[in-house]
Design brief:
The chain is mainly alpha-helical and 310 residues long. The protein has one domain: Rhopdopsin 7-helix transmembrane proteins, CATH 1.20.1070.10. Strands 2-1-3 form a 3-stranded mixed β-sheet. Helix 2 runs antiparallel to helix 3 and helix 7 runs antiparallel to helix 8. It starts with 8 loop residues before the first strand and ends with a helix.
């Protein structure tokens, strides 16, 4: 069989091989995508324009919103096009660029959530030293480190998969160029590639999970030692939104990626993948906006200023 090259293209099937209402799915995804942009832009604007939100927690939250918008944009516009056309082609180069940015942004979001857990640990467990420990230099260094680590991780995945041979069966049973679906599409041996990718991915997630777990165990111990119920409630509320976002993100990611390819089910994985690629980026902004009084007040003020100007 002839192998594909840089001038070849793949066919993204998305959901074209399944029975569904195209108009309903297209409209739903378009609304979710619009809400993702609106909610996250409003959250970013509130953080930038409100001096009371110029703290480390909101600095990382603003970065998370930027990642969420970008993460959603990597897949949703192409998916909307695919739904309208019932399957659309994507070039070999375009496919790997999409996968590169998808892995880059997904990894960055994971790292940011870990950093935010560490930030909450310092805020709750070391309140007197928090300002000096989490200063501007440390915040920027952590943010840059997240992007650098994400870039290296994404380059590794993209390079490994680009070295495989892809034959004339070019049908990608997914709505974007996913690592797992491309592994299934290769006509060469993927044993070494799978070993490298899943070992690196598993080790990375385990390290991050342990960091988060240790941070929240220490936080829980500190909250238990707090004498007044109002102080305990305030300390817990500062972490509850982050815990909800963590559950949404890691729950779906672990289900999709931390398992052997023999358990791969394209139909079920496409549906589950929508949770963390499309729905989670929207929900993150709403979770932090609706459950945080400081953010709600800043947003209300920003919206009222917008109306007064109009």
């Amino acid at each position: 069989m002839d192998t594909v090259n840089l001038t070849s293209s793949f066919i993204l099937l998305a959901f074209s091989d399944l029975h569904y209402n195209h108009a309903v799915l297209f409209s739903t995804l378009l609304v979710i995508y619009a809400l993702t942009w609106t909610a996250n832009i409003l959250l970013i604007s509130s953080i930038i324009l409100s001096p009371q939100l110029h703290t480390p927690m909101y600095f990382f939250l603003g970065n998370l919103s930027v990642v969420d918008i970008s993460f959603s944009t990597v897949t949703v516009p192409k998916l909307l096009s695919t739904i309208l056309r019932g399957g659309t082609s994507i070039s070999f180069l375009g496919c790997f660029l999409q996968m590169y940015f998808f892995v880059l942004l997904g990894t960055n979001e994971s790292l940011l959530l870990s950093v935010m857990a560490f930030d909450r640990y310092l805020a709750v467990c070391m309140p007197l030293r928090y300002v000096s420990l989490m200063n501007d230099r440390v915040m920027n260094l952590m943010n840059i480190s997240c992007w650098m680590a994400s870039s290296l991780n994404s380059l590794l995945h993209t390079y490994i998969l680009s070295q495989l041979k892809y034959c004339e069966d070019r049908l990608v049973h997914h709505f974007f160029c996913d690592v797992t679906s491309l592994l299934k599409l290769s006509c060469s041996s993927t044993t070494l590639a799978e070993l490298l990718i899943y070992t690196e991915g598993s080790v990375s997630i385990i390290i991050q999970f342990l960091l988060i777990l240790i941070s929240y165990v220490r936080i829980a111990m500190s909250i238990i030692r707090i004498k007044t119920s109002s102080s305990r409630s305030k300390a817990f509320s500062s972490c509850s939104s982050h815990l909800m976002v963590l559950s949404l993100f890691y729950g779906t990611v672990i289900f999709i990626y931390i398992r052997p390819s023999s358990d791969y089910s394209s139909q079920y994985d496409r549906i589950v993948s929508m949770a963390y690629t499309i729905i989670t980026p929207m929900l993150n902004a709403f979770i932090y906006s609706l459950r945080n009084q400081d953010v709600k007040q800043a947003m209300k003020k920003l919206i009222m200023q917008g109306f007064s100007l109009s």
